[in-house]
Amino acid sequence: MEHTNNASNKQLINSEAKAKAKRSRSPSESPEDRGQPSKTTLHRLNGLENDTEIYGASHFGEWGEYMQRKRAKLQIQNTSLEGPSDAKSDIFRGLAIYINGWTRPSVQELRKLIVTHGGVFQPYLDKKSLVTHIITCSLTPAKIREFKHMKVVRPEWLVESVDAGTLLPWTDYIFYPGGRAEASQGHPVGQTTLKPVSKSTPPPSPQVQVNRSESQSPASRSRSPSRPLYTTDPSTYEDAVRVPGYAMGQSNEMAERVMADPQWRAAHTSIAPDFIEGFYKNSRLHHLSMWKAELRSLVMEAQERAEREAFGNTQDRDGPVVQEKAGAQSTSTTDVSMGGVEFTLRSPTKNKGKCKAETNERVFMHCDFDCFFVSAGLTTRPHLRGKPVVVCHSQGNQGGASSTSEIASSGYEARSFGIKNGMSLRQAKQLCPSVVTIPYEFERYRDLSSQFYTILMRYADDLEAVSVDEALVDVSHGVASRRAAAPFSVNDYALSLAETIREEVKATTGCDVSIGIAENIQLARIATRMAKPAGLFHLRRDDVQKALEPLDIDDLHGFGYSTREKAKEKLGTANVGELAKKSKGQLCEALGKGTGETLYKAIRGIDDRKLESDKPRRSVSCDINYGVRFENNEQTETFIYRMAEEVARRMSDISVRGRSLTLKIMKRDPSAPKEAPKFLGHGICETFNKQTPLSSIHGQATNDSKDIGEHAWKLLKSFNFDPRELRGVGIQIQKLEKEGMAENSAQARLPFQPAFRAKTPDKAELVQVASGPPQIVVQPPSQEEILQRADVTAGVEEAPTHDIPSFSQVDKEVFDALPEDIREELENEYKRRSKSPTLNVPPPVPAERRPRIVVKGTSTDVKRITRQLAPRSKTTISPRKSTLFAKRVTRVGPSSVRVAEDELQELGIDPEVFAALPVDVQREQLITARHLKNGGALAEPKVLKYAKRKTRVYPKKPPPLASHPQHPFLKQQGPKKGDKLYFTRTDDVQRVIEAWVENFKEDPPNQKDVEYFSKFLVQSAESSDTGMEKTVAAMRWWLVLLRRHWEFYEHHDLLETEPVTQRMTSEKIGRAWWTAFREVKLKVDAIATKRFGGTLCLK
Amino acid sequence: MSPVQHCGFELGQGLSRDRRYRKGPSGGPTVHTMTDTLSFNQTLRAIAEFIEVAIHTILYVRQIYPPDLFVRRKKYDTPVYQSRHPALNEYISGAVKAVTDELVLGNVDKVVVVIKDKDHLALERFIFSVKNMIQVQSYDKDTSVQDAMTPATLSQYFRSFLIKLTMIESQLGLLEQHEDNSFAIVMELNDDKVPSVGQDKNPPPWVPADQQHTTSGASEDSQLHLLRAVDTGIISLSLAVQESGKKFQKFVSPDPKEKGKEKT
């Protein structure tokens, strides 16, 4: 019993608790509020009858009661807020306001404002009709949609209305959802793969990202508002502006010149067959990212091994930490990869590796080579020490002053001239003409790097491979043990450990490293800045503020150019010291929640990030944006497939398969020159990304180059870009799975038309298919029989490969289960076939690909043939006809005779041969064989029947005959006696009239002649509209002739001025002609009036 | 003659009956090439299409609507003008469809585009005169008619029609441009024929026309320009322009000599 009551009781308790909580939070709490509110208040509010109605127990099954009461209680609270004493104004009367989300001023303040000024504060929005306005500072997209028909206003409306003492128009304060707040969020992630460009990451050129830590020492940093960016090939206009000396709109003339040479193109751009290999052999970025990935996985393996071994026998701790696999050295000369190197973590104890040391004091070291490429190069070139050395592709005087080759690394001597990483060699030469270039030596870098890591491994509790020349190491334990060893020494144990490491690295590799030491990763990185060059620096907790103060945001790891710009714009400063004074809220508001919070901590030297030593690889990719120049789609496709091979190779190297593929395309910005300022570079580009799920034919994750290529090419095609505009292509595979895993988890795909699916058809092949007309066999009736035979044999041959099974072989159940449209199609097809039972029209070869054309072609074909087979009449005649046809269809329906195979064998017929025969022959054969077997006579009623059907002949109706109006003709005496000339054509008639007029220039026209012409013209006009046209033309010509000779008399009335003399004056002749003309005209007009109304105009 | 004027309002309901694309009972359309002679349905469709094109051109040439309402297009290898106004286009195509329905039955004598002034007095009539020369059985509607014209020739004729139509402007007396001229499409049927009732429930799209809009209402002094005529052997078609006497009374004839002559 008690149990049943429980629910409602609990609810009540809850509601009261909440109400109390709310009450206690409200700033002005009158004593009255605590007690029961007066009845008058209640009545005024919601018309509830009494307070027990509100504060009493909820009733069982009373839906909505809870909320209703809650609302009432809150309103009671609000009215108490209002208070009689400070009833300020009524400016908000009639308003019911709901406040959405976080606002400034706070909800409590706003609520007070609303309530004290006569408005109603609605705490819930469950009934939108109750609310007149919504106050908000920010809305989620979903809410924007939800509220789009409501009055959404900024809180300033209330505040300023109160200030003004009157209700300001809310329309001035409409809330407009601005740019998405998320745009400012999202901090750049450490580069894990070789990414060419993505618009979201602040430094869009990867070169910059990689070299940033080296290039900008705090001392040399310029404080210009727009910081110069050093790269030779920026891909956006924003970046291009920041690159000093970058001729943005300028086309590289040399590139244009060489690109004009197709042979050069074929050999040196992406069209070249070995382009990808060449590209990767020479791409520093490729090596860097590849090594990084490899180092990471090596580190990971080392840790795993360390953990495993922790449970086994203790190893010799001073044993070799690097085990070069046999033969690795020899292969690595050509293949510059980390393959063959194996790290061993020094102390496989329980609190090493993944189970991090739990010492109170964490010590992180950030170890970084000083200008790695240069110092690596100098190890074999000691004579260059002290000279301004840079590493770049372009060597010596090659390329000369105009070289756009990018400087990957510059020595400190070179830096003192102002040379920066990412500059072009040309720029560097301008700054320092004596600059010395040395080439890349990837093998050396690899070796040095592995040595470097080997040493670090020996001291590290945990290690994160940042790049070849840079690592983050957790050395907490090492330091602690040193302290334990010499507890009373005043030395800085961390510093002394770092010194040991530094010396060891120097001794092994001959290169200097700088080590920054601090209590977390962020600070360690900053400490390294202080340590450089070739030094150590321990950033202690006490010095943190001092060290951080002069820095800019983008000196902090994880914050880039865009964050800096944003901070400057919104907070007025990018200086860490200044920003330290800002509240967390301000930072969050300006930079977005995530970035703001991280920055807030970072500024205070707090960084709780962990070393990412065991972060599994997320993606494998292959990007090429140098030398990408295509002329047509075929080249692009080939290239894509080649890139897919590269990606596939990388994936199988680390034995993973992927489920998702992203295609990144850089397309020349329409406003950018055809040839980028950087020789064969990508120039300013538009970047496009598209993602697609990736799967093999069996629906599993894949690393097959064919699958990858197919998917990538499909994506690229979907962009529909001009291949000549492409400047960069990247294929990235995500959702990686370890090979061998999840093999069976995937749902297999049904093998629909596997032959077609397996490979994208060749372009050429497609064209061929398209141009090849469907095989339509049109048979002249005479050759019918012969050709039919020929067709039958052809059909037999083709049948097993291209034909659908005969109707009798179709599983009825399966057939019924097919989708309606497919079933219909099949039915039609079978109908079509059964209509022409004897001729098995072979479908043309490309039937599967171009079904439409085929059906169309053959259907007309069939129609024609059936007509000839049964030439009774056109098939189009009557609906009754079709029923007759239908009957025939059912009779001849099955396209093979049903007979058991055993029986056939018994009869001595090869079933296979039998199946290939046309139905009627099958039947015939079967009957004959059966009869022969039974020894009976051969009766052939069926054959007769067949013949009968064939001989039934319908008379074919003649096609309709056109009827042309009979045109009257002008009959004349021919040149010879008895000859008659008939004139019907307009110009002939005109010629006759002209002759007539010319002959009677001296005489008035003969009345007989006039009648003769008049009769013709009238008849003609009466006969048809074309006749009328002729009449008009003739009359018009007559009129012209008359005007030519007697124009003067045209408007003289003949009757009025009847001449007395009998002399044949020209006047009389003229008048006679005009009279004749008018006579005819009247007659013709009469016809025209009858037909159209009005008179003919002969103008 | 039973003159019947087309009423735009009721057109919308009649639109659904589009016979022009109805297939013959055979199910598949007969394939015709340009060298085959015309079939009845082809002729019907061609004439209907031509009338539609011509109406657009008439409206442009006679400037019933501002010229910028029209776009220049190519049809029958000659430039024509087509209205861009959807409502107008719908009215015209609806009217032509309705005409086509009657044309199938062979009832139509004339289709008249009447240009009216603001008082609805007919100023000009553009008369499409048609005559069904043969009766074709329903099953032969898609069969090539022996001895008939070929589609190519017919299309050349239409071209000539349209050229004449655009040229006639120079011969016709000017219409006063500032007036609110309007137009109507009138169908005149053969004697003792009334517009057929459609198979569907919709009322027929036609209403009886104003007598003076029809050719039978043409006064004695109206002038007829016969533009062109063609005999396809199936349906004959001619196009004439009639300037009404009203127009001559309204406007001074540009050629007084001509006018005097016509008085006789």
Distance between the termini of chain A: 112 Å
Mean pLDDT of chain A: 69
Rg from alpha-carbon coordinates of chain A: 48 Å
For the residues shown, what is the average pLDDT of chain B? Answer: 75
CATH topology label of chain B: Cell Cycle, Spindle Assembly Checkpoint Protein, Chain A
GO cellular component, one term (chain B): zeta DNA polymerase complex
Pfam family, one (chain B): HORMA
Biased composition (Polar residues) (chain B): 211-221
Domain HORMA (chain B): 41-241
Task: Note the main attributes of this structure.
heterodimer; A: 1099 residues; alpha/beta; Rossmann fold; Dna Ligase, domain 1; DNA polymerase, domain 1; 5-stranded mixed beta sheet; 4-stranded parallel beta sheet; extended; B: 264 residues; alpha+beta; Cell Cycle, Spindle Assembly Checkpoint Protein, Chain A; 7-stranded antiparallel beta sheet; two-stranded antiparallel ribbon; 29% helix; disordered N terminus; disordered C terminus; HORMA_dom (chain B); HORMA domain-containing protein (chain B); HORMA_dom_sf (chain B); Mad2-like (chain B)
Structure description:
The complex is a heterodimer of chains A (1099) and B (264). Chain A has 1099 residues and is of the alpha/beta class. Among the domains of chain A are: 100 residues, 3-Layer(aba) Sandwich (Rossmann fold); 145 residues, DNA polymerase, Y-family, little finger domain (Dna Ligase, domain 1), CATH 3.30.1490; 66 residues, 5' to 3' exonuclease, C-terminal subdomain (DNA polymerase, domain 1), CATH 1.10.150.20; 97 residues, no CATH class. Helix content of chain A is 46%, strand content 9%. In chain A, helix 5 packs across helix 6 and helix 24 packs across helix 26. Chain A is extended, with a radius of gyration of 48 Å. With 264 residues, chain B is α+β, with helices and mostly antiparallel strands. In chain B, strands 7-1-6-4-5-9-8 form a seven-stranded antiparallel beta sheet. In chain B, strands 2-3 form a two-stranded antiparallel sheet. The two termini of chain B are 28 Å apart. In chain B, 29% of the residues lie in helices and 25% in strands. At the A-B interface, helix 35, helix 43, helix 44 and strand 21 of A face strand 5, strand 8, strand 9 and helix 6 of B. Chain A: One of its GO terms (molecular function) is deoxycytidyl transferase activity. Chain A: Belongs to the DNA polymerase type-Y family. Chain A: It is found in: Nucleus.
